[in-house]
Every structure is written in structure tokens, then in C-alpha cells.
Amino acid sequence: MEHNVKEGQLQDWYYRMLLIRRFEETINEKFLAGDIPGFVHLYIGEEATGVGVCSALTKSDYITSTHRGHGHTIAKGADINRCMAELYGRRTGYCKGKGGSMHIADFGIGMLGANGVVGGGFNLAAGAALAIQLRKSSEVAVCFFGDGASNRGTFHEALNMASVWKLPVVFVCENNQWASTTPLHEATAVTDISIRAHSYAMPSVMVDGNDVFEVYSAATEAVERARNGDGPTLIECKTYRIKGHFVGDPEQYRTREEVIEQMEVNDPIKKFLEKVLSEDLMSEAQLKEIEDRVQREMVEAVKFAEESPFPEPEEAFEDLYVEVEVAEHA
């Protein structure tokens, strides 16, 4: 099979992409119903990028995310019950209900956290990669970021340092064409973010971020390069943000016709289904089985979240500090 896809990989890709899609659709509905507090930024339309990249990683590899981080979290293998509970502000959530949508983290699977700061993940990923290098272990760190974040100083600082020190890190730009309400061409001097890697003597590649096969192929090569000690790579995944910047965004900066056209042409799940069915890579029965499984798991996740308790007020003061034993001087 092309791109060295492993046995069961197609089933896992469809499961992960569909799980992310249904999770995001569900929280969109629940947020608008008033069941979820705070702000919510959806990953709908970008599923192939997160799943394609994370499929090239091991459980012990690291990722840093963005404010649009549910997709990355689920792609890396997080428990959707705990993800849902966190968005609901419940004690059983990943951050005990105190972090919400933009701060989900699970160190147990190498997910170092979603991040409410644009460009906030660069130095975290570079730091994780430096730690890997210093302890001489074999993990790889991946930094997901949007096209808007490539204009922040942390982008240039991290890429430069990673290249100078040949850190085992992969920078993945999810170029979804919109930085909040600003189109790429109005705020970025270059059309392709991947070009910027040349300034740091770093290899780069640009792929269709809506094609999980392409993303996986590029990610596999970049991860292998990093793991072998050959340094960082910048992958630019051209994709599109189907939903608004946040749930409730009036989206006055783009037309509905543009969004509909993108959904027709670039929906990553639709593209995946067309490919696997036309090439007889998966059967209708296999797809239906996965769809039923995702539906069951989504119902269970909502039930788990709704039945979980809220944290007590005094718990706001917990988990603020780490206890460290300090040896007394002789």
C-alpha cells in the first residue's frame, strides 16, 4: 500500500478523524446550548493534519498545541471522556475542570498542552527537544501552529535555535488561511510559510493538509530525520478553517460561498472516503462499523461529562505548586 501505510492504519485514520469531527460538532452544539463555559475554537476541516502527523509519532513523543487544540489532543490518543469533562468544567477533566478548552494537556501521552497564547508552543517544543537531546533519548517533539503564529518572534527564535543545535523537533504549520479574522495575504509577506525555513538552513516541505496520506508521508520522513539526529524540519500543511475563529463568530470577514466551496473541495474526511472507496482500500461495512463506534463513544463522553461533579471552590488553590524535597546542607 502507498506511503508505507501499516496494517489497520486506514481504520485508525478514519476513526481518529471522525472522532475529532464528531467531538467538535458536539461541543459546538453544547456550547451554543449554554452547557460549556468559556470560549471554544473548533478544529473542523483540519483533521487530516493532526491525525496524519500524530500517526507518525509514538506515545512517548511530544506535541505542543494551539488554542485550537482538541483535534491534536484526540489525534495523540487522549481519552475523550476526560477531554469532554474538561470542557464542561468538571473535576474529572484533564485539568480537573480548571483549564477549559484552551489548556487541555496529558503528559502521559506526550501532549504538553493546548495554549491560549498565539505562538506559545514554539519554545515549549524546542525546550522538550533540547531535553531529549541532553538526556540522549530517542523521542521527537512536534510543534503545531497556525499561519498567523509564523509572524511572531517565537517562531523565528525557536526555528533558529533548533537548527543551530540540530534539535529533534518538527514544526508543523497548519496554514488554514485565516489568522483570527485576517486573511493570510494581508499580514504575511510570503504566500508559503515553508519558504521561511530556508532562513535557518532547515529543510521544509509543503503538502495538502487535507490529505491524510500526504501529511503522514511528510511527517514520517521528518520524524525519522529528527529521531536520527539530523535536526528539525518545517512542514506546511495547506488546509482551511471551516468554522469561525470561535463558536459564535459572526464571520463577517468572509463569504458563506467561500466556506461552502472549501467544504466541497477540501473536506479531509470526504477526500479520505472518496479515496479508500474508489481504490477498494476499505469497505462500506468497515466504515459503518467505525461510524457506529464513534457515535457510541460520543454519547458516552457527554454522559460522563454531564454526570461528573464540578470542582469545589477551595480546589482553585490546589495544583499550584510542586512539592520538592530539598536536602539539608551537612
From TrEMBL:
Pfam families: E1_dh
Molecular function via GO: oxidoreductase activity
Record-annotated Dehydrogenase E1 component domain positions: 15-314
Main enzyme class: oxidoreductase
UniProt EC number: 1.1.1.-
Transmembrane segments: none
Keywords: Oxidoreductase, Thiamine pyrophosphate
Names of the cofactor(s): thiamine diphosphate
InterPro entries with a match to the protein in the record: DH_E1, PDH_E1_Alpha_Subunit, THDP-binding
Protein name listed in UniProt: Acetoin:2,6-dichlorophenolindophenol oxidoreductase subunit alpha
Species the sequence originates in: Sutcliffiella rhizosphaerae
Lineage start: Bacteria, Bacillati, Bacillota, Bacilli, Bacillales
